[in-house]
Design goal:
It comes from Streptomyces gibsoniae. It contains ten helices and seven strands. The protein is an alpha+beta fold and 223 residues long. The radius of gyration is 25 Å and the shape is elongated.
Length: 223
Amino acid sequence: MLHRMVGDLMTTAVVSVRPDTSFKDIAEHLADHDITAVPVVDDQGRPVGVVSEADLLRKQEIQTDPGGHLPAAHLLPAERAKAHALTAEALMTSPAITARPQWSVVEAARTMARHHVKRLPVVDDAGRLMGILSRADLLRVFLRRDITIREEIMTDVLTRTLGLDPGAVTVQVTDGRVTLSGTVPQSSLIPIAVRLSESVDGVVDVTHRLRADNDATAGALQP
């Protein structure tokens, strides 16, 4: 089974800034490239942090409400420091949480969730920036066509991996939802077939109407 790796999904044309890049220059980079964050890299091109729109907006949060309707914002010391920051080094969230191109979609998604981040700079073996992966990039696996998903399950999961007769199991895929129907040689293969089908990129859900051959035979012998 071929799974899409981070290297397949990441954006390689990465916009980055240096630690001494000014507040205004960062804002212009975000606007010009229609992005929401930029990695900050050192002299060797290694990510040392990330500056996001949220980091820049701290400066607005500490401003007095022109209408006088809102009380002053209560920010934590670290947030207040960012509100007064003038360079990427002072604005960035550090250290940068990074990914590797050979990571699976699952590993990248779990890393984002664990660290509460929306994107991961992708680095090579030397730690140098080579791409960036966003949550939107991860969702691209769910754009795979139903016919492509069905073909992968039929060929890679059922025939090549489990060695099943192609005519024994029917695979239906609708909007990423998979239904497996038919018979398999052993009942122990049923949860394996379901689990492997669930792991195919783009699958949203798997249900089954599978029976083992011995179950089918037993049913046929009953009066």
